[in-house]
Amino acid sequence: MTEDAKASRSALEDWSRALQYRKQIEISGHTTLLSALGDLVATKGENLALIGEDGALTYRALVDLSHRYARWGLEQGLEPGATVCLLMPNCPDYVAIWLGLSQIGCAVALINTNLTGDALAHCIRLANAQQIIVASLMLPRVTALSAKLPEGMDIWLHGESDEIRYPRIDLDVATGSCDPSETPRARLPKAHDRALLINTSGTTGLPKAAFVSHARILEWSYWFAGLMDARPEDRLYNCLPMYHSVGGVVAIGSMLTQGASIVIRTRFSASRFWDDVVDHGCTVFQYIGELCRYLVQTPEHPRERAHKLRLCCGNGLQGEVWERFQARFAVPRILEFYAATEGNVSLYNCEGKPGAIGRIPSFLRHSFPVALVKIDVETGEPLRDEAGFCIRCAADEPGEALGKLLSDSSSPARRFDGYTDESASARKILRDVFAPGDRWFRTGDMMRKDEAGFFYFVDRLGDTFRWKGENVSTTEVAAVIGSCHGVTDAVVYGVAIPGVEGRVGMAAIAADKRFNLETLRTHMHASLPDYARPLFVRLTDGIEITGTFKTTKGSLSREGLSNAAPESAVWFDDRTRQAFVKCDQPLLRKICDGELRL
After folding, report:
1. Per the structure, how many domains does the chain have?
2. Do 493 and 428 share a domain, yes or no?
3. What is the pLDDT of residues 144-183, one digit of tens each?
4. Which of the two ends of the chain, N or C, has the fewest CB atoms closer than 10 A to its terminal CB?
5. Segments forming the whole domain that contains residue 554
6. Do 527 and 417 sit in the same domain of this protein?
7. Beta partners for 212?
């Protein structure tokens, strides 16, 4: 049997298993992930479920703790449909909190732990929450926004603190009941009720809060359990942020539904990675491509091939890094996928083809209707033919990926449940695409599909770019830079660097005599999370605008780094020197040759 034939056979087994696992949702009748986990206590109760840096929870302890948080919510008078914000770093309690509160009909808004200032206030306001649970170490960020928080919002601390103005939720639940029978049956949510709000940048403006239903959580959990062939003896290494759908739901649910364990880390550490993976006997690693690139750039580690990893699952892994990563570290299999928190387009590369984000098998194309359409790169709008319909892309021609919204779809992942902002929800739906009245979800992502049916990610549309696993809103970053002393105008965009996943932030700035780079650097580091700070600054006399008063961001992005206009001065944020340095040709060569870590 040829290697291609083996890959096709293995992919067929993966798809079949995923479909079988998804049927378990209907057979069990469960509408929440916590209810499904409750069934495992009888046989897996003393098995480790979540292994954190400061402690671990067995299945029995996780379910009990989740019900304690549910009971706490009832005691606070939280009604079905209420929202609670959660601002905490990765830890076992993070999972128990949202499992428990969503069990009594609440929606839990997972807040990005990198946010500060107005961006943080914006995300909290989006949730329209009555309560916010905050890790003690993050409390100063919240109290600094007291005037911008929703009126009457209660703040609950989690973890040791000298602060006495706010109650400690972890102490409160320690004495509460963990008896699930004390949760009134009438309060239990239905499958399509909201369980989570997950912030996503989308393609324009500030973050949007996407609704995630219980049905969607269960489908993600069982679907990925099937694709990854999750087993009770598995241990998944998860250092991805749990405020995202992959690190917080997919990595967790796919393993917990099968009685497996998750090793939780607050952040990724290249120097600690292999010791952690080997010491804990991890068999699965949930990645984003950037993490794999960091690992292949590190010096040889004595334990880098002494692991038990059988699978690495994730997204954003470039083909060249894929092959180096798999060969150097002897990883048997990589499962690359594409999905969006709120979207209905998902792709899976079960064949293991380096660089591809997935292929839809012929027997599932009716259930996964995806199309690539031609786009006007300047306006971001689809091109239409004489009849007014969108134009499909030819093989290997880039276009925006659309997913058809089916009124009769039984799959929650094929739905679009929208955002808290109804106007933002409306903008994601494209109508009359190939036939009068049809409706398609806009991913905002450019892809291409080859003759064999494999999809490849090309770029993001609109005002965001992807860097270090995060969607960066260019309008938000430009607004922060524009408020810096001496800046008269600013535009932010992503530029491509050879061998680097995503795009690196670059800001074109027009300034007056009051401006200096040291002040700008201080301002950006105080106001923006690390992943959102532009590494390159281009100083220019003025920024060109279009006839509709929009900046010519597209042309700046296409010029990139090496083709910047000669009259412009380009500076690089050197983290080693902690200062901006002139980006001359020798430095540019080092950056493009991968000699400097970005």
Report:
1. 3
2. no
3. 998 888 888 999 999 999 888 999 999 999 987 677 766 6
4. N
5. 464-592
6. no
7. 196
